[in-house]
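Could you please review the protein record set out just below?
***
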Amino acid sequence: MSSKIINSKSSSEGELNGDLERISAQSANCDTLARQLRELPAFRGLLRAVEARFYCDLPMPNPVLDLGCGDGHFASVALPQGIEIGLDPWWGPLQEADTRHYYGLLTHAVGAQMPFSRNTFGTVVSNSVLEHIPEVDPVIHEVARVLRPGGRFYFCVPGPNFRTFLSVARALDAVGLSGAAEAYRCLFDRISRHYTYDDVPHWAARLSRAGLHLERSWAYFSKGALTALEWGHPLGLPSLFAKKLTGRWLIAPTRWNLALTEALLRHYYEEPLPDEGAYLFFVACKPDASL
């Protein structure tokens, strides 16, 4: 599948709609843990592998928009079909996404001002994106505008438990250093670039204001899994250096080199959904007025 990058300020609606008609579907493997660990830092690979499982059984009516597609890695590995359009405000990741040849069209634009007409998409996916946007309500309203009646909106975000589950902060709280614990949480917010930790009722209200209906949601990523992700940040610094030097997160992504990592993390990948999780996954829809 070939793709091209369109600047939203110079693209035409006719060109976008023409590209929508020329895209074919592809499939993905549900158990992506091994591949994620070969291509991403371990903490990120674990999280993305857990999230990828959720999409395997979700209906994905075409055309599909990947809102905040980034470098395209997640969609190319996890989603059960090819993606017609990827949208992101950053040129660098879009250029990397273009090399994957997974999207029919890549669009340089912000989520609050999408260059698409009303009722264009059957599905909008936004995987671990909305928490990075300071003003998220305008983006949700744009999603509602570009979704067709009956269309689905799938997204996931960290929930309120993300901050409370952080192991270092919990340890500081346990010894009475609540100020230091909060400072650590704020530091992790900055590192993660998180602005939003809303709970399910807040997201349901936000969706409703935009004209969308929350069908269901679930929590995922246990306290132990988040601890693995938390400590993976400093342990993953060599991967950051490797990415800057070579363009790849891992220099030697061989099976023997990753066997211990996969063995340690697979427990968290295979754990059942917890009653309380650090992250929340949402399935929303745009009501069909004809029903």
In short: The two ends are 36 Å apart (CA to CA). The mean pLDDT is 85. Residues 5-285 form a domain with the Rossmann fold fold (CATH 3.40.50.150).
